[in-house]
Amino acid sequence: MEIRSEISQFIDSVDSFSQNRLQNKEDVSILLQLSRDEGKEQVFDDLTFHAKYIYRVFGILKRTMPGSEAYPKLSAEFKEGVEKVGTLMRTLVKEAPDDVKYQFMRRYFSMTRECMDNLLGISYDLSWIKNWHIDKSDNSEDKDQR
Fold it and tell me: What torsion do the CA atoms of 78, 82, 84, 86 make, to the nearest 10 degrees?
């Protein structure tokens, strides 16, 4: 799938903002382009929100002892968030070309440890898009108040 230049430029801006930490630029670009092509920008916005959420919950979960009181609740929230991220990604790739659907199915939607790692990786990247939007909206509000 050929990515339009404005999508690539935006992803490069986010990558620069993240200090070159994005690991799945191609797949994030595909999701963003599909969302715009299909008029599903809100689905993409929801995806970045939930991706940021599960990545943060995962970080907390890693630091929480499995026998602790908070662990079952965090684990349930994480599982629910992962399902939501998967559903949103599936919504975006549903109408994609077959090769793109296959690529996402193999990389993110199978029930394997590798797919879970990949899903967390792309969630990390998507969280940077959410951070970029938050930072840009905060900066524009600061300018409005001057």
Answer: 180
Q: Which residue from 61, 37, 36, 32 is spatially nearest to 47, judged by alpha carbons?
A: 32
State pTM to two decimals: 0.91
- pLDDT tens-digit profile of 21-62? 999 999 999 999 999 999 999 999 999 999 999 999 999 999
Residue 4: left (phi > 0), alpha (psi -120 to 50), or beta? beta
Contacts for 88 with CB less than 8 Å, ≥ 6 apart: 43, 46, 47, 50
For residue 32, give both structure tokens: 């963003």
List pLDDT tens digits, range 82-94: 999 999 999 999 9
Question: How far apart, in Å, are the Cα atoms of 44 and each of 21, 59, 85, 137?
Answer: 20, 23, 10, 17
Q: CA 25, CA 7: separation in Å to the nearest integer?
A: 10
CB 90 within 8 A of CB 109: yes
Calculate the alpha carbon distances from 12 to 17, 81, 86, 99, 128 in Å.
8, 27, 24, 24, 12
Q: CA–CA distance from 125 to each of 7, 70, 95, 132 (Å)?
A: 15, 27, 23, 11
